[in-house]
Design brief:
There is one protein chain. The chain is built from 20 helices and 23 strands. The chain is an alpha+beta fold. Helix 2 (57-79) crosses helix 4 (88-114) and helix 2 runs antiparallel to helix 6. The longest helix is centred in the N-terminal third of the chain and has 33 residues, at 138-170. It is elongated, with a radius of gyration of 33 Å.
Length: 585
């Protein structure tokens, strides 16, 4: 049976897939399909490259063959009688060793020539290795190409590993989504959902697409996008981005962007398609090679021809031999290979230790840094809430914790989870009834026949419950509790500092690097963390634009800045810093 949607002029099959649409939408769908097809092709292409970068026998076979034949040839050169090996058999032997590694380089040389880059390193290596064969130095001709090929393989392996690590870190997009079509729910790929349709996000599930919340208020874990562990309450009409996790309610989202256009997809695409920026050293080598290659070639020609005018007993064959020797020893393969290979080796080693450099230029930049500026939540702290203090006023401490935990056990909010974890098994025999979540305020319900409220100060104000005015001065995250509409006490919740944060700050200081913390959290919380870790300066209550202003101020004083953060909110200041460090998972 096929369902028809007159509003959107779509028809759907039993799986909820679009089977027909209006003329205009057919055109758009065709365009989208072409883009999607291209995306699939690109994925296949990327996958193919990913496989190529693996250490497979097929990929390394040409180098292995050439290496074995080269070593065998050298052994026979020294240990076997000349009349047996040093004849046409020797030439054929080294030619066979030469072809597997030389063919790709010679091919690149011809491509460069047809592209207008006649004097490339590929051209020089090609004529240098050919020259080596012309003067009978066959092992040298093979070695020139073999060393270059091995260098390229190591480079590809390093880059491939870094790309796969980046993809694994960032590709956290859901592969399924619940879409509502003709009043029915279908579980399909997010790629098949178009703008204007409505998707459902159940508690604990991640939004697959960007959109606008059409249902009632809901709390979302936005850590993947904002870097802050404190959940964010979204009201009807607010924007929800792909990657946000619904915490407490079934949310209905009206899709505003296709799967390929979501913020998460754009970030992944930018990182994977970004070509590694060349460092100043590599740029110099590239420019140098463009000058060096023609100089060497024309010098070799001059060595072969100019002596005719100055040498009385000029023999062309002798001077051609000398020109070819000059060409072979002048081949810059070591120079051309060593610099990029050194950088890519560094990138590969860093990625193996969980540090992903976007380009080799940042390896140079990171050595010049004298100031590290960092965010707090998710960078220095784990973004995980823990109970730090319990203050009971009108009831005993254990009762306060048990009643609050029993009520909070009905919520998926991280603050609630922290309280439940703190209470442990003490609440297994206590149950809460008629639990109601008041968006942006907290919870209320019946626990052991008592009416319990747990939330922020706005919750108590909403129900006209009086409390100690001193609570207004507490700057940390607190959960205030009332029992039968009488203020009972509060629980302080705070983030946990990462175990290696202090050691990192200490080691940065030992290198003479200044440390500064910029955070959107309260100044008192920022000061506490800063003091505990020994950070030089700390500024709290900052918006993204305030962080940018602080970094600009530091740069105006001549400081070389590295900024470490973990969310979209840090993107502007990361871009402004000399080196941006994005904290991953």
């Amino acid at each position: 049976m096929i369902n028809t949607d007159p509003l959107h002029k779509h028809t759907y099959d039993k799986q909820g897939r679009i089977t027909c649409c209006s003329l205009e939408e057919k055109i758009n769908a065709k365009t989208d399909n072409q883009v999607e097809s291209h995306s699939h092709d690109e994925h296949a292409h990327n996958h193919e490259h990913s496989n190529e970068s693996e250490f497979s026998i097929r990929e390394y076979l040409p180098s292995i063959i050439s290496f074995v034949l080269l070593i065998s040839g050298l052994a026979m050169d020294y240990f076997i009688k000349p009349e047996f090996f040093k004849s046409y058999v020797r030439i054929v032997w080294y030619v066979v060793a030469y072809i597997p590694v030389a063919f790709p380089v010679v091919k690149q040389a011809f491509k460069a020539i047809f592209a207008g880059a006649f004097f490339s390193e590929f051209f020089l290596m090609s004529i240098a290795s050919a020259g080596a064969f012309a003067i009978g130095e066959y092992p040298e001709g093979v070695a020139v190409m073999l060393f270059y090929t091995i260098g390229e393989l190591f480079q590809e392996a390093a880059v491939g590993k870094a790309k796969r690590s980046i993809k694994a870190l960032l590709d956290v997009r859901p592969d399924k989504a619940i879409v509502i079509r003709n009043g029915e729910q279908f579980i399909i790929s997010p790629k098949e959902i178009i703008t204007g349709e409505t998707i459902l996000i159940k508690p604990g599930e991640k939004a697959a697409l960007d959109g606008i919340l059409t249902s009632t208020a809901a709390s979302f874990n936005t850590a993947a996008l904002t870097g802050e562990s404190v959940p964010e309450t979204k009201n009807t009409g607010d924007t929800v981005f792909a990657g946000m996790i619904s915490l407490n309610a079934v949310a209905e989202i009206k899709v505003t962007a296709l799967y390929k256009d979501s913020k998460l997809s754009r970030i992944l695409e930018m990182v994977q398609n970004a070509s590694a920026s060349k460092s100043p050293t590599q740029l110099f080598i590239t420019k140098f090679a463009k000058i060096y290659t023609p100089v060497v070639v024309f010098s070799a020609i001059a060595i072969a021809l100019l002596p005719y005018f100055f040498v009385g007993n000029y023999v062309f064959a002798d001077w051609l031999y000398r020109a070819l020797v000059f060409l072979v020893i002048s081949c810059p393969c070591a120079l051309v290979i060593s610099i990029p290979l050194g950088y890519f080796g560094g990138i590969g080693l860093a990625s193996a230790n969980g540090i992903l450099f976007k380009g080799s230029n940042f390896l140079d930049v990171i050595t010049t840094i004298d100031t590290v500026v960092m965010d707090k939540t998710g960078t220095l702290t784990e973004g995980v809430f823990e109970v730090q203090k319990v203050v009971a006023e009108t009831i005993d401490k254990n009762t306060l914790v048990n009643l609050t935990a029993a009520l909070e056990s009905n919520s998926t909010h991280p603050v609630a989870a922290a309280i439940v974890k703190y209470a442990g098994d003490k609440i297994k025999d206590i149950s809460a009834e008629n639990v109601e979540e008041i968006a942006g305020h907290g919870l209320k319900g019946l626990v052991d026949g008592k009416e319990v409220f747990a939330g922020n100060l706005k919750l108590l104000n909403k129900f006209n419950i009086t409390y100690d005015p001193a609570l207004d001065n507490i700057t940390e995250t607190i959960v205030v509790v009332s029992v039968d509409k009488i203020y009972a006490g509060y629980i302080i919740i705070s983030d946990r500092i990462k175990s290696d944060a202090k050691q990192t700050i200490t080691e940065l200081h030992s290198l003479g690097i200044k440390t500064i913390m910029l955070s959107g959290d309260k100044q008192t919380v920022v000061d506490k963390v800063s003091k505990e870790l020994g950070i030089d300066e700390a500024f709290g209550g900052l918006l993204p634009e305030d962080k940018v202003a602080k970094v600009q101020e530091l740069k105006s004083k001549g400081r070389r800045i590295a900024f470490a953060g973990d969310g979209f909110n840090d993107a502007p200041v990361i871009a402004l810093a000399d080196a941006g460090i994005a904290m991953g998972g």
